[in-house]
Amino acid sequence: MTVAPSSRPRIIKLPPTLVDQIAAGEVVERAASVVKELCENSLDAGARRIDVEIEGGGRSLIRVVDDGCGLSPDEARLALERHATSKISRAEDLWGVETFGFRGEALPSIASVSRLRLGSRPVDADEGFVLRIEAGVETEARAAGMPTGTQIEVRDLFFNTPARLKFQKTESTEAGNVSESLLRLALANPDVHFRLRTNGRVALDLPPHRDLAERVRAALARRGAGVLHEAVGDENGVCVHAFLGGPECASTTARNTFLFVGRRFVRDRSLLQAVCMGYGELLERGRYPLAVLFVDVPGEDLDVNVHPQKLEVRFANPQPVYGAVRHVIGASLARAPFLELESRKAHSLAPGRGGKGALPMAREGSYDGRAAAERSRMSAGSRAADPVDLDRLFHPRSAEGPLEAPQPAKAVLPTQAQLPVVSAPPPPSGVAGLASLRYLGTLARTYLLLETEEGGLCLVDQHAAHERVLFQKLRTACEARDVPRQRLLFPIPIELDEARLATVGEAQDTLQTLGFELEAFGLKTALVRAVPELLAHVDPKPMLRDVLDRLAEGEAPTLAPAELERVLSTLACHSATRAGDVLDPPRVAGLLAELDAVDWRSHCPHGRPVLVRLPLAELERRFGRT
Ligand code: ADP
Ligand code: MG
């Protein structure tokens, strides 16, 4: 803003309430951030049990009740002032701070944008008290009988900040966010009983668990976590403790990859990449594992004071931390039981490296195993350089558009460095179809070798081809709103967390269009009643989890065409990854004929070539004949 010299604005000191509201803008973004801050305070107060209740997605009511040490009325009044904290007193305390809080900002910030009621009874008092604060001003103070601990009620969140209200999502989405916040705290604090009630119904109940392993398993059961592999190790003073899901639980967003530094949940792109690199070839590019990672570094090597919501940390020396994560996960996965199940024929495993001959995912007789491994291998080398937008990754809903999973480089094969293959341009129209070419055999159980008309070689990736055929068929059927369904004789229950159950409700139309019939059943489960006929041979659970993740990324429950493509390619991929085995010649012919029949050249959902040509001229050049 430019200012005329005659009307120079006056500088004033902002009133404290406005200062608090400005701070609230950073600390309190939505109901979930309020719940996080209040529960962190309860944990810092030594609570063994934390009961959270929300109504209206947290907008009308958030109540957090703990059995912690409590506080006196005077302490409470102080706590409601800015920069009042019991957790640090000197600058040096910031390094290695063990409590969740330390800034003394949360309570005044929350109080400035809501109607707050704080009741507490300290351990050494006979009775408790209640304070009421409205938009930062105390309106009531009285003694009250209550058990030891603290009860904070936040009503009418953002009632005095209408601009902030506009940024809130639907009630069910906000409730899902609250549940997610609580889940993260629960993962890192296994000895504390966490309970969440949403509009009076219990949405989460995690009684104290013996250890991290028990808690992680109980907390993530609804995320489709099957066997979780525990990895423990340390390197250069960095302690790593992780719980790792198998490749089948991986998904297209990092929603199920939980990263903790100390007991703090963090978003850290490099740490996330380190986890993915630890998985190496087990993980397809663009997918993120279901995993919980705890990293511990010495306090003096960690700066936790870098983010208003304390969702990011800074390592004094980051590389050794990422290295330790990569190595501990990589080494440990080599012994993971799910690998033994998956790869009776795997020779060796070299996670994190594009190891030659290491195809740990190759299932004997599988249609796609090697292709999947190959695809991962293609990506393993370049994963570190992926530009991943952190915010979109962790907050797909708040992103402007749906998350685009990092795509493999177009038309690149691992062999490219050594062998200049020519990726196929669409054959000119009028050229005979693939089915008419002579089939010579299959290479590496993956590449169909065909002799082209001019005597060159054409390689078709059978997995990619199958995926493409399915994709096109599904797309055509979807566009005609006529996806043939198969009704299931017995509905299949699928456990889902709250947020995904909400998605089931919100995206009914889209699910129907895709050929699914799915309905919420109770608070934890949805019932799958019908699936698209083309996908009837596939376990619908992992596929549906992925689709629901995709659907949740969009703002609207209906799909834009580009999103539809992504969902369909997700479906096709799931289906193709599980289909068939080594193809006999009639099935090869069938696949090629189907490929000829669909218009696969115009669209390339994965950006991966289906077909690569090695022209005769190229062969002749290599043999020195020209
Ligand atoms: P911080 O957590 O950064 O110290 P807060 O504004 O969140 O700042 O809390 C201010 C102070 O209020 C805390 O330092 C703590 O002493 C006290 N406090 C807040 N919540 C509780 C609670 N549930 N039980 C006991 N004391 C609490
Ligand atoms: Mg706090």
Please explain how this structure is put together:
By secondary structure, the protein is of the alpha+beta class. The chain has 19 helices and 23 strands. Strand 1 and strand 2 form a beta hairpin. Helix 1 packs across helix 4, helix 2 runs parallel beside helix 6 and helix 6 runs antiparallel to helix 7. It binds adenosine-5'-diphosphate and magnesium ion. The site of magnesium ion (MG) has 5 residues, from helix 2.
Please name the defining characteristics of this protein:
single chain, 626 residues, alpha+beta, 5-stranded mixed beta sheet, 19 helices, elongated, binds adenosine-5'-diphosphate, binds magnesium ion
Brief account:
The chain is of the alpha+beta class.
Q: Which helices and strands, and how do they pair?
A:
Layout: H1 16-27, H2 31-44, E1 49-55, E2 61-66, H3 73-79, H4 106-112, E3 115-121, E4 128-134, E5 137-144, E6 149-155, H5 162-166, H6 171-188, E7 193-198, E8 201-206, H7 212-220, E9 228-235, E10 238-245, E11 257-261, E12 264-265, H8 269-279, E13 291-296, E14 302-303, E15 314-315, H9 318-333, H10 337-342, H11 369-380, H12 390-394, E16 422-423, E17 438-443, E18 447-451, E19 457-461, H13 462-479, E20 485-495, H14 498-506, H15 508-514, E21 517-521, E22 525-532, H16 540-553, H17 561-578, H18 585-597, E23 611-614, H19 616-622
Parallel strand pairs: 1-7, 11-13
Antiparallel strand pairs: 1-2, 2-6, 3-4, 3-6, 4-5, 7-8, 9-10, 10-13, 11-12, 14-15, 16-23, 17-18, 18-19, 19-23, 20-22, 21-22
Magnesium ion (MG) binds at residues 37, 40-41, 101, 106.
